[in-house]
Amino acid sequence: MELSRRSLLALAGASLIPASRLYAANALAVPSVDLLHLTVLVDSTTSVFGASITRPDIRVVPPPITADYHTAFAGQWGYSLLAKSSAAGAARTTLIDFGYTPAALLNNMALLGIEPGTIDAMVLSHGHYDHFGGLDGFLASGKVRRGTPLFVGGEEAFCARIRGTDPDGASFGAIDRPAIRQAGIDLIVSGDPRIVAGQGFTTGQIPFVSPERPRVPTGMLLGQNCDRHLLDPAKRDKSFVVDDAEHELGTAFNVAGRGLVVIGSCSHRGIINTVRRAQAVSGIDKVHAIVGGFHLVPPQTRDQAMETLALMQAINPDYVIPGHCTGETFVSAAMAAMPQKVIRSVVGSSYIFGSA
């Protein structure tokens, strides 16, 4: 049954409560940036006929035309985003997630002229293969600077996973921790909010403060590839649990004069909950843009997609850039409801906020 108009309005009204009143956040002195340049490195939508957009508060640059027409940007089920920010003349580059395969990530980076050695910090949103699968090959390039920080939200990210929620399901892989050590990466595992490269920040663990309760279609094999002693006490003695994505992180930037740009790479904790957490951590209620995967594909329902849309309209971001696991149900409804705000995520495209 679809949500009634009254239910949608009630949900929207709940979302108008200032984030600071919803729960106490870990206080963080969040910096502001003058310019934020987001480039989609991995997603499922590709195009060689992208359109550019120029407005006072955003510029969209389509994928560049490759010099050799035999080459093309690779699209796949997964996500990776490059964030170039600048503040007071200092520029920083943050890589958020790594897509499904090294081949796609490295191909698309090469076509965009992005060198691994230029990355100042990395964030892994959560421990699903379609977000960390490209990591090993990226590190194996030998071009990533030793000592580059990699932010991960908790030990659970490293646990081996299976597809589906049956303990006998097929493997969904696990992060190669030795490869991270061998590359000399500074691994920072924390559920607390953290400043990233001096200009962005992670949300830390994301509480449920909206009606969103997404179902996560994977299971964790506890103790396999992860240290039981570092897991939540309620889980550490079990051999299998259905994922609740408790370790998942969002990433955000405060664009001066515009507000927050919040990136929910897959939003298994709910994209509205992710935004609310970023607001509470930063103390900033204004949301300029919401970007990434909103996890509204099955097993989520149409009602859940409409519920999220109502809550998002109440937050009233200037822009919404849905991609990856958002799903066409939400995207088509959002484009009808907010036609000037919704912009498609396309591999190789850049979305530029702020002023140079």
Automatic annotation (TrEMBL):
Signal peptide start-end: 1-24
Keyword Hydrolase assigned: yes
Record key words, sorted: Hydrolase, Signal
Domain Metallo-beta-lactamase: 92-324
Name of the featured protein: MBL fold metallo-hydrolase
Domain of life per record: Bacteria
Molecular function (Gene Ontology), one example: transferase activity
Cited InterPro entries: DHPS-like_MBL-fold, Metallo-B-lactamas, Metallo-beta-lactamase_dom, RibonucZ/Hydroxyglut_hydro
